[in-house]
Amino acid sequence: MAITTVATFGVERVEVMDPEGVVDEALMPDLSPERITELYGWMVLTRRFDERMLKLQRQGRLGTFARVTGQEGAHVPAAFALHDEDWMVPAFREAGAFLVRGVKMEDFLQYWGGDERGNLIPEGVRMLPTAIPVGTHMLHAVGIGWALKRRGEKAAVLTSFGEGATSEGDFSEAMNFAGVFQAPVVFFCQNNQWAISLPYYRQTAACTVAQKAVGYGIPGVQVDGNDVFAVYRTVAEALERACGGGGPSLIEAVTYRVTDHTTSDDARRYRAEEEVATWKARDPIERLAKFMKKRGLLDDAGEAAVASDADQRVAQAVAAFEAVDAPNPDEIFEHVFAELTAPLAEQREALRRRLAKEA
Ligand SMILES: Cc1ncc(C[n+]2csc(CCOP(=O)(O)OP(=O)(O)O)c2C)c(N)n1
Asked: What pLDDT was estimated at residue 359?
């Protein structure tokens, strides 16, 4: 009889660029200056869009929105690392990924304005719509990945979610299935430290999200989620491995939700201003700008031009969104059942009567 160690594990963390924009050349991903400039443009567009979303909501022109400011260093480079033939299966805090993947900004606005027609993904864009139920979409991602594998398609799936979603049973089922069937899925966790008012340490007893991969026999790694190069490099590698038959992986991008949970929340009620200030100082866009300025890829005038170009694109999208006719309320009852159930038919009649009265 003996007691022996049958398994050991460690968790690696990838950092490429420090807060001053200085990079480790040996770890730099393969990105041309043009691609880095493009990536920067997407991040700024995402930030300006996000800020405008808050204003629109406060003005009563938009419904609730899950803001992404501070998380552009995570989901934007992750989406940027995808090839056209890859799929993205997002949660609800990935505005930048929608833009990078080619979803029209006005459509995205329309969805968050409460009009489901905005959820129609353009033909040829391999992306699923926003998933509000926490965690359910990870199973859809694995289904798509498994299908790609069975069809022999050389493509992978990136699914993104928050650390809160890793407490859901869906996460465990998805990770297990992906591991057993070696589905080409990259699980991308934006660990932004808070699930509404629940902090990370109350969410899980695991000291990293990345280590959860060990239980499913798949590789797990942590990256600095405010370091675009670390994220891009790690996601690109994981996608390549998945496409080449190397199976799934889990990436934990450590970042921070500097805004409220949604435009309906007030985070000052449950967390300290000092903590928020610490993370604001680690801004991912400023970090990339510092790098680009050192390399002569950006100057102050260029920075202002990128921002004003982004503002113009956002203004045009808002105008297009607000020019769309309101949907027919009857549509609420369509597309779920082939034949409307009796209670739903009754509800539709009640709605019609009420709208007729109010008209
Ligand atoms: C199945 C389910 N349970 C609860 C909710 C309510 N809810 C919305 S967001 C959220 C927290 C999610 O936290 P996390 O997964 O870390 O993502 P984050 O919001 O931080 O991006 C909860 C509990 C929901 N949308 N779906």
From this structure: 82
Q: Is the CB of 70 under 6 A from ligand 1?
A: no
Active-site residues, by number, are 257, 261, 270
Number of domains the chain contains: 2
1 lies in a domain?
Answer: no
Whether 213 and 252 map to the same domain: the answer is yes
Instruction: Based on the fold, state whether residues 319 and 185 are members of the same structural domain.
Output: yes
Q: What are the tens digits of pLDDT across the range 277-322?
A: 999 999 999 999 999 999 999 999 999 999 999 999 999 999 999 9
Tell me the C-alpha distance between 163 and 201, whole Å: 11
Domain of residue 346, residue span: 332-359
Query: Is any atom of ligand 1 closer than 6 Å to the C-beta of 67?
Result: no
Q: Is 249 exposed, middle or buried (0-12, 13-18, 19+ CB in 10 A)?
A: buried
pTM of the model: 0.96
Other Cβ atoms less than 10 A from the Cβ of 238: the count is: 27
